[in-house]
Amino acid sequence: MADLLTPGAIATIMNGDEYPNPVVQILGTKPVPCKEGQEQRYRLLISDGRHLNSYTMLATQLTPMLQQGELVDYTIIKITNHLVTKINKNDDKGPTRILVIIDLVVVKHGSEVGEKIGNPCHAGDTNQPKEAMQPPTTPARPSSSSSSSVSNGTGNRRSIDITHFNSPMASKTHPIVSLSPYQNNWVIKARVMTKSPIRTWSNAKGEGKLFSVDLVDESGEIRATGFRDAVDKFYELLEENKVYLISKCQLKMANKKFSSLKNDYEMTFTDDTRIVPVEEDDTSIPTIQYNFVKLDAIQDSAAGQLIDFVGVCKAAGDIVNLTSRTTNRELKKRDLTLVDQSKAAVTLTLWGNQAEDFNTDGNPIVAVKGGKVGEFNGGKSVSLIGGSAFHINPDIPEAHRLRGWYDGLAGDTKFTSISASADGGSSGKWCTLAEAIDEKLGYGDKADYFNTYTTVMHVKTDRCVYKACPTPECNKKVIDQNTGQYRCEKCNQEFESFKYRIMLSMNIGDFSGTQWVTLFHDAAEEMLGAKGDQIGRWQEEESSEFGEVFKKITLKPFTLRLRAKVENYGDESRLKMVVMSAKPPDYKDRCRRLVAEIKQLAGLSS
């Protein structure tokens, strides 16, 4: 079985020379210590029958092979793609060479081999004959101090001279998938998939600006970020869909909260970074890599998760002007309703220039990479963040299939919304009050939301309004100074006026039972059909209109959207239900639901 291995291959490779497709044996594996949240990496002990090497790392994309039992001890493998890098160990012995296996083929499983082949020793042992350092078939080439060994992604070894960055030699590059912090000299040839706008920040440590680009080659993708001076140096140079040669960036672990790219690492541009445009487009490099999910799958996605999806813009809302609570800056946003073949509808929120520039004509196809899932009122929506990619009518197969499907739909096709609408629409769970209690809605770690048809039984009108701070973003109760001034402790200011805010306690009921609920200002104004300042003034003046406004809703049916959550009051836990929105019942929709329930029961009984 010794003839399966290639003696001398390890010594040749570790000397920095070429050896195509060496066949070696795995004699041991060991996990590399890593920080929490990082992907586990593994170190190997390999043998070519003559030499051992314990400075061998398995690329992360091969980790599943080891974890699934394909790379057990004594397994014989053919290394079809690899690279050698150097790391400094801060001792007098100089840098240590590390062999990184990027791709391999299992020749014979360890269970079939069952033993160590030969009597190998470490390649650095002095009792090894000098000729053992040469490969049997491929002549060795002397290594150069000005070159670093790289892989061309096909299993052969290449060498690139960094000093000839603009020469044809620069086409011999590292694949993105092979990059790691253990390497120093490398060059990648990659296409810019997306480029973010320049963003600024200001905090106690100072001010600055940054931007990021997502890069892709035939092996994988990675994000690169530039700060401060790098923004001025590289932002205009880097253009979407253009190909560049890039080297001398800092690599660190990727923050998965802000990136959906399939790479454990991300790059940072430094003062030494070199970026050179490639004049001729390389068609072998893809333009963008999506990992699309269907829109109905967003319902099960966790809030904060970054996802890729594509949908048809069925409808678009108007541009809304908002004021940021933290920066007090004016913001513009627009909500799009997207649908796909799963017949789910989801809300996508655009901000700033994207909201203003979006053209709704012709129901465009929208593809999003790295959209952030949000949760509100029990529904799921998606918004764009700094690292998101947003493309309209992209020339990709998924978009063409989606266009054909949508154009062939009947005009009355119904879609299921998985996004909670601001008006408390039909998204989410429907149940009776008793079903909500029986299913223990609100007893989990997060609040539960549901819709119900119910009747207002009684409204507590004492203390239903309070005097609040007049500042638009503050609703804190003010203290009457009895001097014509009203003090807000939150704003630490005194004001000559105030605003009335509503807070109602109400008993509602259906055929299954009753429940006390709370209504805050917006939902209360919506249900009562009157403004808080009107109700406060009527109460103060003891006007008959004060009683009439509550009498109008008593014993009247409503469609309510409720939030249920158990809250602790001292040592006592109580279920609190809050009305998020209130609408007059849609009787047609109610009848459709009742018919569907009857059919379901009939099917179960048969």
UniProtKB/TrEMBL annotation:
Keywords on record: DNA replication, DNA-binding, Metal-binding, Nucleus, Zinc, Zinc-finger
Ranges for domain Replication factor A C-terminal: 449-594
Keyword Cell inner membrane: no
Ranges where the Replication protein A 70 kDa DNA-binding subunit B/D first OB fold domain occurs: 173-276
InterPro entries xref list: Euk_RPA1_DBD_C, NA-bd_OB-fold, Rep_factor-A_C, Rep_factor-A_N, REPA_OB_2, Rfa1, RFA1B/D_OB_1st
A Pfam family this chain is assigned to: DUF223
Domain Replication protein A OB: 296-393
Replication factor-A protein 1 N-terminal domain boundaries: 5-108
Compartment(s): Nucleus
Main subcellular location of this protein, as a coarse class: nucleus
Record-linked SUPFAM superfamilies: Nucleic acid-binding proteins
Region Disordered: start-end pairs: 115-161
Family: Belongs to the replication factor A protein 1 family.
Subunit record text: Component of the heterotrimeric canonical replication protein A complex (RPA).
The protein's role, per its UniProt record: As part of the heterotrimeric replication protein A complex (RPA/RP-A), binds and stabilizes single-stranded DNA intermediates, that form during DNA replication or upon DNA stress. It prevents their reannealing and in parallel, recruits and activates different proteins and complexes involved in DNA metabolism. Thereby, it plays an essential role both in DNA replication and the cellular response to DNA damage.
The name this protein goes by in its record: Replication protein A subunit
Origin species: Nesidiocoris tenuis
